[in-house]
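[Discussion] Sanity-checking designs against the backbone

I'm trying to build intuition for which residues belong where. Below is a structure token string of 80 positions. I'd appreciate it if someone posts a full sequence so I can compare it with mine line by line.
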């Protein structure tokens, strides 16, 4: 059973509002957000879609948000 912490749930909720497909493939592992398969999907999450997702996340966190690709995934880290 996966336990979702408070901030993680809030972040996942704003992703759902910004992009439902990205939300369906989003999960947290060790405090890092992964959008599985999003970087190399048939219709990758990039450009304005990624911009909307990142801006939605920034509305609910009070830290720096760093985004990069790792294999097929988009990885979003939260730093001080």
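Best answer:
Here's mine. Compare freely.
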């Amino acid at each position: 059973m996966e336990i979702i912490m408070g901030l993680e749930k809030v972040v996942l909720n704003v992703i759902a509002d910004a992009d439902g497909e990205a939300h369906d493939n989003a999960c947290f592992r060790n405090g890092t957000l992964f959008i599985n398969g999003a970087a190399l999907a048939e219709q990758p999450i990039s450009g304005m879609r990624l911009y909307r997702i990142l801006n939605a996340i920034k509305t609910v966190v009070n830290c720096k948000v760093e985004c990069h690709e790792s294999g097929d995934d988009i990885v979003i880290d939260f730093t001080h």
